[in-house]
Amino acid sequence: ALYRDELLDMEKQDSNFSVVFALTRDTPRRPGDHARRIDEAIVRDALARLPAAPKHTFVCGSNPFANAAADAAIAAGIPASEIRTERYGA
């Protein structure tokens, strides 16, 4: 996966950084990662790991992914005004 190793290295080096993977084409290798498309439950799980609610939420991906991720974030309680999306492709 793109940048997986870099993100895992960042997590090892910085106790204030955590990454959660939602994998649709691979089996999760770590407890706490998910084997399905992003949904409200995954977002809620990730939010529960944070010491406080995020001030900003960034979503980047294809239109269908950005829509699903932003909708899941809103359903998990993140205000729409705090979500920024960057979309590409179909």
Give the C-alpha Rg.
Answer: 13 Å
Strand content: 5-15%
How many strands in all?
2
Our count of helices gives: 3
Poorly predicted segments: none
**Strand arrangement in the largest pleated sheet:** 1-2
Would you mind describing this structure in some detail?
The protein is an alpha+beta fold and 90 residues long. Helix content is 36%, strand content 13%. It contains 3 helices and 2 strands; from the N terminus they run H-H-E-H-E. The protein has helices spanning 4-13, 40-48, 63-75, and strands at 57-62, 83-88. Strands 1-2 form a two-stranded parallel sheet. Strand 1, helix 3 and strand 2 (83-88) form a beta-alpha-beta unit. The relative contact order is 0.15.
Summarize the structure.
The protein is α+β, with helices and mostly antiparallel strands and 90 residues long. The chain is 36% helix and 13% strand. It has helices at residues 4-13, 40-48, 63-75; strands at residues 57-62, 83-88.
Structural topology:
Layout: H1 4-13, H2 40-48, E1 57-62, H3 63-75, E2 83-88
Parallel strand pairs: 1-2
Task: Jot down its keywords.
3 helices, 90 residues, single chain, two-stranded parallel ribbon, alpha+beta
